[in-house]
Each structure stands twice: as C-alpha cells, then as structure tokens.
C-alpha cells in the first residue's frame, strides 16, 4: 500500500484530465459512490484504484492521449494491481471500465450525449464505440454488471470539493482486500 500511497502523493494532486477535480478527488469520490451503493470491499477498492494506471511512471505507459492520460491506463493499472496481490475481480473491474464506456456508447446513443468533453476526446483514443461483435463478447464477462456500475461511478465522481473519507481510509480497505484474497 505504500507504493500506491506514493503514486497518489506524487500524482494525485494533478488535474483529472479535463475535469474540475484532481486525480485523488476523483478516486476518493468513485470509492465513496461504490461504498454508498453497498458494494463489497473488492468493488470499493477497484473504484478507488480504477485510474491508477494514469499515476504509474511514464516509462510504463504505452503513450499518451494528447493530455488526457496514459493510453491503455486501464490495462496498465489492472496488471500493476494483479502483480501486487489484488484479486482478479478487482483487476477485471479496472481493466474493463473503459470498455464499459465503449459498450454504452454503442448500445445507447443518448449515453454519448451525456459524456463530458474529456470523455468524448478519450473515446477516440480508446477505440470508439464497440462493434456488435465486441459488445456481444463483452456481455459474457462474468463481472459485466459490476463493470457497468463502475463506469457510472466513474462518470459521477467529478464534483469539486465533495467531502469524502481520506486516502488512508480506502488504502486500509485495499489492504484488507489483498489480505483476504
């Protein structure tokens, strides 16, 4: 957890790409939304850490999205957390939260209209809307419903100055998840 805390200490005060919150505020708000929804600790940990790929050192990134973070941050983050003992559930929720956006855009035109400007811009780098075949395959993921819920929290977690528990609170939950995994 020290390494994760350091990542947030080093990059958490950076702006959350085109949104009115920092990386840390976004992570804390997403975790709070998961907790308020009654999610289990693995899901809360995934919500808190879903964008950790953006905080990893630049040499691990496969490129950047014109000022909107690391390309494939979701895969980078999921792999990083797998290596640190997090469960496959946590990894899957993180690894596919971008696919959830691609899926929802493909399935619901009204969803696209609700995306923030930054989210529309990153969608271009992330492959655009899913094809019919990609969507059908995505629906078979055993964590499909949880991934879609994660996406909802991700989109809502952009409120400036929203009171949340602190980072230590969610790092302790993350530690419990690893210990129980």
Write the layout of secondary structure elements.
Blueprint lengths: L1 H10 L11 H14 L4 H9 L23 H11 L4 H8 L1 H11 L1 H6 L2 H9 L6 H7 L5 H13 L10 H14 L1
Helix pairs in contact: 2-3, 2-10, 3-5, 3-11, 4-5, 6-9, 6-10
Q: Care to describe what's here?
A:
Pfam families: HD (PF01966). InterPro entries: HD/PDEase_dom, HD_domain, HDIG_dom, OP_Dioxygenase, Phosphonate_degrad-assoc. Residues 23-118 form the HD domain. This is HD domain-containing protein. By secondary structure, this protein is mostly helical. The protein is 62% helix and 0% strand. It contains eleven helices and no strands. The chain has helices at residues 2-11, 23-36, 41-49, 73-83, 88-95, 97-107, 109-114, 117-125, 132-138, 144-156, 167-180. It is globular, with a radius of gyration of 15 Å.
Keywords:
HDIG_dom, 11 helices, 181 residues, mainly alpha
